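Per your request, structure below.
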């Protein structure tokens, strides 16, 4: 369930009240006339079932509330209320299956932006993965996968493709391209420093590394894993189950592939550099394809559920 906090200008009060009254998933409505000061208006509080949230938010935006007032939504972790249970039961579908586009778009907006924090996380993750690849340590590689923030821009590209939002697509693509380029360059320098300190060596890099050799040897299984990760990642995003994203991060080898490419470039091993770049590209493309297809499937299924809910019952 979502908790909505609305700032409603006086001339929109009746329209907003009608929207809330018409939605079967709305409950716990509280109206505080004239309580808002910036922007001025009424303060309206309510809870809405996730199943009904997307349609309600679209109607509130159509009223002009997003332009002249405010719409704030928070996740409700606990609600002990028979009224809330009845609202969720009356709304179509299941809450875990609900697709709330505003929530998905907002979740990908910050995560898909190129920022100093994004670059720092990606660079640190790539350096950790370089240590793991050099030492043939699967534990370090897995740790680097968890730290890597690259799924945010990948999810942003998926949302942009489905919603046809070129600005979001460009911002996400820019974050990926610049992020991996900067992280790779920094990791090359990091590897050279480690080599100068005697902690890395060409002998270690060229030795057999059975635990991490998959990083630069892409195959059909790598594509299958990327596709499955894309599906799981988008499902965790749309269902607000952030814990599943950890599993997605561990399952794909984007950051380790970039790290091994940086090591290979530093030691001028074009074979491993090309293999690592192929693994990186395969994972990125697979996640985007599967993620976009998952969003399209969810959108279609949710639209069908809505049409069934609004279809008039046949008269006997």
């Amino acid at each position: 369930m979502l908790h909505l906090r609305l700032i409603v200008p006086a001339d929109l009060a009746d329209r907003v009240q009608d929207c809330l009254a018409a939605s079967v998933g709305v409950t716990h409505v509280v109206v505080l006339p004239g309580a808002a000061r910036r922007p001025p208006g009424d303060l309206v509080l309510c809870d809405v079932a996730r199943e009904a949230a997307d349609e309600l938010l679209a109607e509130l935006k159509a009223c002009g509330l997003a332009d002249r007032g405010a719409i704030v939504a928070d996740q409700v972790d606990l609600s002990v209320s028979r009224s809330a249970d009845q609202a969720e039961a009356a709304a179509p579908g299941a809450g875990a299956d609900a697709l709330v586009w505003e929530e998905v778009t907002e979740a990908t907006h910050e995560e898909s932006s190129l920022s100093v924090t994004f670059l720092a996380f990606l660079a640190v993750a790539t350096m950790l993965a370089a240590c793991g690849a050099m030492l043939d340590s699967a534990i370090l590689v897995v740790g680097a996968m968890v730290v890597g923030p690259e799924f945010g821009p990948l999810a942003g590209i998926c949302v942009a493709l489905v919603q046809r939002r070129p600005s979001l697509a460009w911002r996400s693509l820019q974050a990926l391209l610049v992020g991996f380029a900067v992280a790779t360059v920094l990791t090359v320098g990091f590897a050279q420093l480690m080599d100068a300190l005697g902690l890395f060596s060409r002998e270690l890099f060229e030795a057999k590394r059975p635990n991490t050799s998959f990083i630069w040897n892409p195959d059909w299984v790598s594509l299958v894993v990327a596709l499955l990760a894309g599906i799981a990642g988008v499902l965790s995003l749309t269902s607000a189950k952030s814990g599943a994203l950890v599993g997605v991060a561990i399952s794909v080898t984007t950051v380790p592939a970039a790290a091994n490419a940086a090591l290979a470039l530093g030691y001028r091993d074009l074979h491993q550099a090309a293999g690592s770049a192929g693994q990186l590209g395969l994972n990125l493309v697979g996640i985007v394809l599967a993620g976009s297809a998952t969003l399209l499937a969810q959108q279609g299924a949710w639209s069908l559920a809505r049409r069934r809910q609004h279809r008039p019952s046949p008269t006997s």
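The mean pLDDT is 87.

Regards,
D.
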